[in-house]
Amino acid sequence: LRECAEKGVKAAIVVSDGFAERDENGGILQREIVEIARQVGMRILGPNTAGVANPRIGLTTSPYLAGYDQIKAGGIAIGAQTGMINPQAFPYFDLHYGVSKLCDFGNKCDVDECDLLEYLGKDPATKVIALYLESVVDGRRFLNVSREISASKPVLVLKSGRTKEGARVSASHTGSLAANDQIFGGACKQAGVLRLQKFNDLFEIPKLFASQPLPKGNRMAIISYTGAVGVLATDEGATYGLTTPSLSPLTASKLHAIFPGLGTTIVDIGPLMVVARDSDSFYQEILSTVLEDDHVDCLFNVLWAGPMEGSSEIYLNTYEALRRNSPKPIATWIYGPRSPLISTLSQRLEDLGFPVFSDLEMAVKALGMAWQYARRKKERE
Amino acid sequence: MNDLLAIMKKAREEGRTVLTEFESKRVLKRAGVPVVETRLAKDQKEAVSISRKIGFPVALKIVSPDVIHKTDAGGVKLGLENVSEVKKAYNDILTSVKKQVPRALVHGISIQKMARPGVEVIIGTSQDPQFGPVIMFGLGGLFVEVLRDVSFRIVPVGRRDAIEMIEETKGYPLLKGVRGKEPVNLSVLVDMILKISDLVGKHPAIKELEMNPVFAYKQGALAVDARILLKSE
Question: Are B152 and A177 an interchain contact pair (Cβ–Cβ within 8 Å)?
Fold first, then answer.
């Protein structure tokens, strides 16, 4: 690092571990590298980090073997106090997952979550920011910076150390002090930061924000092949303040004309698909009819990736048409008997800009959190 | 505000970081927070005349920086209905405190009007190592002690934050009135939260503040007990 400082290097990523997270001597060493950097105005990311990725310019600074560095450029930024979000740990490429920036800030000896937030707030490629934090370096600054940024870009935070046990283990992982979780939660509410609960949320929830418009209200229409899915989705939606509305009389009569018994609350197209030979022509009409209803603010759409020839094409054509004219957010879940069919269809839909979620609860949760973000934005305007 | 600074300064000069309940309530009153009417009596005669003035029933409490647990030291008498009860209570408190905390410095005895019971809530502030001053709201009694049903925000808070603090407690429905009980006036509680946030924000010398309980009513609310701790310099 001293040599880098002498050569006028502006920034360094310190991959090595064995610093403040290890023991007292490591802590001394960490302070020493910060001191070297401060003297010449060099910034340090890490130590104890797997680095950063910027797919737009094809940059991946990975201490691992190469080959994971082809990531699709997109609008999602993920920052974390772990390398578990870096390309060696998550199949970004296979999933066609669009990333703006990835950053493991490790021990945060210099560059911390607020520096990253400020940078991502200004980054035109970043549409949504998802963070995994074990601690915040400066609580007040976190509150102010995240409040400012969340007014224009959604900020989602997964925070560990929620339990006493978790907080104790965190101290030995990155050498950081965990805050009282209730106080941290209060700060997030003040700042308009959305809190995530599970590691998988970190990757899935941002997809909706990156590709879909915000809902104008909390009414979630459901189109499914079975009633049970609709009821489960309604339950899940209610925990985020979503309601499942009765469709307008006009919509109901249009749906009835397409096929009697499609439903007036949850639209169940299962029976139609069984009996109608040319169901593909109806599919697009059903979707656009529901989306046009002014009782509807967002749509949870369930697709069945069946084994019949051409069923994927119906979906793809329908979504392709929606892409040009879709002012309401759509969260999609695909199920079916063959995982290759499901994953291929998922990737193709996501390439069209429509997020597909790993399970029905996650899809509804994404809509629910989008509604919470939209509502707060409206309230504070 | 000058009065408020004077109270804190006096405590400092006496080498104290704990304000008495009487001092704490005066600070809160100055900050515009409704507190139960409380006056200080220096002797028994004064205790009687104050009681007459504010009206029975009254409560008498020892005012001493050295007596932290007032009830345990026999320093609290509640629900006194007449002059003779006040006289007796006054003497009993002094005798008991002298026995329990022999070297206590006694400022006097506070006389306060017995507040009409309402829904008990708590408003407090403390210091967080990462966020600095934070404010807490909760429902009193079992809700806070057993269920930890409280909400936090970072000082200073805005009106919307204060409203959300109240709404997110599990006991919130009780404030809106259940089983035929009247709802309490929420906007008064919101104002109290804002005033406490403002007070603590303006006076970084305050380390902790607790109003427990506050009685919330259909109209208005009253801080019945209060405690302020200053940072050690």
Answer: no
